[in-house]
Design brief:
alpha/beta; eight-stranded mixed sheet; VC0802-like; homodimer
């Protein structure tokens, strides 16, 4: 008997009929002689509705109390889904984060899973139960309820699969898998049958919404194959795993884009040791996540330092950065909040020249100006005008022939 | 510093504005130099909404899963109320049933509190926190979430007050206290300043909705004074306690009524030992709560046995009782679902003749026929036509001069 861990997102359990649909899918998995552990998100808009109530009560909610509140969303869907499975005649039991032994740190609203004690889950599996676990939540050492923040339910699922040594972790969502680009922008985008952890991680970090990078990292750590598929169709989905051969392919795997980019440039920075730390340490202290950082070559010991952040954080960034600009003797600090980024990702790019040139010329042919460039071993990212992002994605999809299969 | 335990019902926290109102009342209690522990019900119709979702998913929900689901209602109101208190600048923390150490038996949907381990509550009080506890819920030995059933949040409050040795338990609700009769039926009904545990218990059991008998029993057990008052006004409310003198009064304290009574009569029962057990043991096994039981004097060793149940259980009762009627050789089994009951209650009635006669003649003057009579030391109950109950309450209120103070 194999152990399968499944995760169903909020849109898959948005109402009673959808919950019953998910129950049927779980029963079918059980019928194939599998042990099944399922983790589930809150129904549809539950989390947003609860946050709306919070906003009516206070402008500065305590993260601990927000977690106590939000965790009820997954607890509700978990119980209702369990009832729906039982109604079909299958033995099932629900477990909250604490009952499932999901121990986290104390960082409320963005807690990290420290360990999972799967004692109770194993006991319930031995009793032949299908086990339904509330996603997105855990318990801290001080016995406070925590939530895992964005991507939390995916992370719960993959971490459970890892700690239970499951055969596979299946992430069911409202899309049919991982695509070569966003199909809403590129109609000829192709669903990938499989993708490596590293490639998926780069795509996720660079804006592909289908899976959160945290969950991919955990999958890689435990070497758990992750299937991403639709809960509404029987499409085979995309398998994220570590066994994808890196040698035979010489291709870009996919294109990610992100419409939410703001750029900050500190102009005329005296180029001396410690200057970067003087700028980025206060930003880190303010819990601001800086993305791409580019420093120009220094002329007469004066340089420009540019970085990007998400648009929602720009105002806070400028508050932090303006006094620093003065302190370090830089000339000024300017920002642009109308940017986006587009990335090509593929392990086949490693140590292979020509990808960057092909990317830049494809963008140039469309008259798209590149403002910043950032690269990793398996990725090239260009920061461009937000208004040009969709054109860029389409042009790159064609240039790298992603509509053609492997 | 005195310790005050308060409870706010669902209508008192039905929306964000009402939650803020409750937060102000709690802050005012704290300002009077009290330690404050609060237990809270689910917001408004939350529980009904959740049960509606259950009905859409299954007709036979597992009580364990219903408890996991319903307990989220109190968890939500507890977190929101805590945020509202914090927003006013007061230190506060929320605790779920399990965090508050409320241990129950495993009878899901109607669990009993076995013990409270107030370790965490005490620790939070020592940190100067106002402690907000989710009402109505606890945890079983197997670490499953349980709910306490009807009157659960009141019971949570009084049990917390008992285990913390609080000075008083204040139950805030949408009425101004305990009245001599339901003010919607008897406009001249008077709020009682105080009432004894036993009297309150009889009134509650006989239909007064203001407090659940379970909570009164726990209050008596721990000898915790219980104040019942409105969360919307500053009316002084009614203090339920053990110190009410029994000697000086010679009066009925209040009138309870109940419109939800069905009567079952097993006709022509052979009167031999064990016959009552043969009838009532199967009913108990079916979890049916039987109220008044009356057995006629036996003629030629044949008797009639009559009992009452709530109307919602009548169908189930008849299913259980009909085969038994045959087994024991009784003639037939008949029922009447259009009954109600009216009770007069007062410790002043103990060993004092004349109350029953005055009650019966007051009803008789209004042409009200009495179908059954049941008594305790401090109560007389008459089962009458449902249609006559309100007339009966008014007549008795006048007959015992309850509009006049002590």
């Amino acid at each position: 008997m194999a152990l399968v861990v499944q995760k169903y997102g909020g849109s898959s359990v948005a109402d009673a009929d959808k919950i019953k649909n998910v129950a049927r899918r779980i029963a079918a998995t059980r019928d194939k002689d599998n042990d099944v552990v399922v983790t589930v998100s809150a129904m549809g808009d539950t989390t947003d509705d609860l946050l709306e109530l919070v906003a009516q009560v206070t402008s500065h909610p305590s993260p601990r109390e927000v977690d106590a509140l939000l965790s009820t969303g997954e607890q509700q869907s978990m119980a209702l889904l369990t009832m729906a499975i039982q109604h079909m005649g299958y033995p099932a039991i629900s477990l909250t984060g604490v009952q499932a032994g999901i121990k986290t740190d104390t960082a409320h609203r963005r807690a990290r899973i420290l360990q999972i004690d799967p004692k109770r889950i194993r006991r319930e599996l031995e009793k032949d139960n299908i086990v339904i676990v509330a996603g997105f939540q855990g318990i801290s050492e001080g016995e406070d309820i925590t939530t895992l923040g964005r991507g939390g339910s995916d992370t719960t699922a993959v971490a459970l699969a890892g700690s239970l040594e499951a055969e596979v972790c299946q992430i069911y969502t409202d899309v049919e898998g991982v695509y070569t680009a966003d199909p809403r922008i590129v109609p000829e985008a192709r669903r990938l049958d499989e993708i490596g952890y590293d490639e998926m991680l780069e795509l996720a970090v660079q804006g592909a919404k289908v899976m959160h990078p945290r969950a991919v990292e955990v999958g890689e750590l435990f070497n758990i194959p992750i299937l991403v598929a639709s809960s509404f169709t029987d499409s085979p989905g995309t398998l994220i795993h570590g066994g994808v051969s890196m040698e035979v392919r010489n291709k870009v795997r996919g294109i990610a884009h992100d419409l939410d980019v703001a750029k900050v440039t500190v102009v005329g920075v005296p180029d001396r040791p410690g200057i970067a730390a003087a700028i980025f340490e206060p930003l880190a202290a303010a819990n601001i996540s800086v993305d791409t950082i580019v420093q120009n070559a220094s002329i007469d010991n004066i340089t420009d330092l540019t970085f990007t952040v998400s648009r929602g954080q720009l105002e806070e960034v400028m508050e932090v950065i303006k006094p620093i600009t003065q302190e370090i003797g830089a000339r000024e600090c300017v920002s642009d909040a109308t940017l986006g980024k587009v990335s090509i990702v593929g392990t086949g790019m490693q140590n292979m020249p020509g990808f960057a040139a092909r990317m830049f010329s494809a963008l140039s042919e469309k008259g798209i100006n590149i403002q910043l460039i950032a690269t990793s071993e398996i990725r090239i990212t260009c920061i461009i005008d937000e208004a040009k992002v969709k054109d860029a994605v389409r042009a790159l999809h064609r240039a790298f022939e992603l509509d053609v299969g492997d």
